[in-house]
Amino acid sequence: MKHNYWDLDLIRLSAQDGAVHLDKQFILIDNFDGVSEQVNADLFFVNHPVKLSFTIVLFCLAGQMQFQINLQNFELHSNDILIVQEGAIGEYRGMSDDAKIAVIAFASEYFQGTFQVEATMSLQRRLYVSPICHLKKEAIEESMAIYRLMKAKIMEIDNPFRKGALLGYTQVLTYNAYNYLLTSDSDEEKSQKKTGRQQELYTRFIKEVQKSYTKERSISYYANVLCITPKYLSQVVHKVSGRFASDWITDFVILEAKALLKSRKYTVQQIADMLNFSNQSFFGKYFREKVGCSPTSYQNAE
User: Fold this and answer.
1) Distance (Å, whole) CA 278 – CA 16
2) How far apart are the first and last CA of the chain?
C-alpha cells in the first residue's frame, strides 16, 4: 500500500520498512539492499509540499534525485549530499531506478548544545546559499563508513551507551560536513561577487520572506526591512529572478497553506488564522485565485 505523508514527522519516518532508530528521534534509512521502489513509494513526500519537523541529511551515492526545497528546484547526483533543516518546506519529485541513498534524520534538539556555535552558524549560512554539496569520493567513502558504524550501534538494543556513541559518530560527521561545505565556499563566493549587490539584495529579500511570510504579505513591509523603496525592490527581484517580489511572497504563503491543509491537523479557519488572514472567507478567495480550487477541495483531494 502506498502512503502519501503530507505531514512528515520522525514518528512516521521511524515506522518505515528498513528504518533503524533510537527513541524515534534519530533515524537511519537506506536502500543498500536494492529496495529502491519501496523507498521511492514510501519514504518521501511525492509531489506534495511537506513542512519538515526535523533535520535531514541525504547522501546520494548513485543515480539521481529531484527535490523542491523552499520553492527552489534541486537535483542530486552521485556523491552529492543534501542537508535540509527543520522548518523547510519540501517536495520530493522522484529518483532514478539506479539511485542509491542513505538518509540520516534527527530532531534538531536531540544533540542540542554539543556543537560549536560559530561553526554551526557558518554552516547555516552556507546551507542558505545551497543545501547541496558535491563530495569527493574519499569524503563519501568516509561518511558511509561512519554511517554503517552508526547503523550497527543503533541495533545494539541492549547497549545503554548507544546515544553517547551515536553522539560521537554524529560529531565526526558534522565537523566533516563543516569542512566539506565551508571549504567549497570559495567558488560560490566568487560567483556571488560577480553578481554584485543586486544578487545580495535578492538573497536578503528571500531570507526575510522565509522568516515572515506567515505574518507579512506586503512588498512595502519587506522593502522597509531592507531599507529600500518597494519599487526598487520589485525591480531588483525581477531582474535577478525573472519573477516579481509579490510572486515570491505569494508562493511561500500558498506552499505553507498546502502543507498545512494536507497535514489534516487543522481546520481551514485555523489555517487562515495561522497565516494571518483576516477571516476564512478572505483566505479561501486568496487560495482559490492562486491554486484554482477551494482550500477544502484541495485538502480532500487524493
Assistant:
1) 40
2) 14
Yes or no: say if 41 and 22 are a contact pair by the CB < 8 Å rule.
no
Cα–Cα distance between 95 and 242 in angstroms, integer?
28
Residue 277 contacts residue 283 (beta carbons within 8 Å)? yes
Contact call for residues 166 and 174 (beta carbons, < 8 A): no
Tell me the C-alpha distance between 299 and 103, whole Å.
Answer: 29
Residues 41 and 2 sit within 8 Å (Cβ to Cβ): yes
Three-state secondary-structure class, residue 216? coil
8 A C-beta contact, residue 43 and residue 95? no
pTM of the model: 0.67
Q: Which pLDDT band, with edges at 50, 70 and 90, does 203 fall under? A: confident
Could you identify the residue written with the cell 534538531?
A: 108
* pLDDT beyond 70 at 119: no
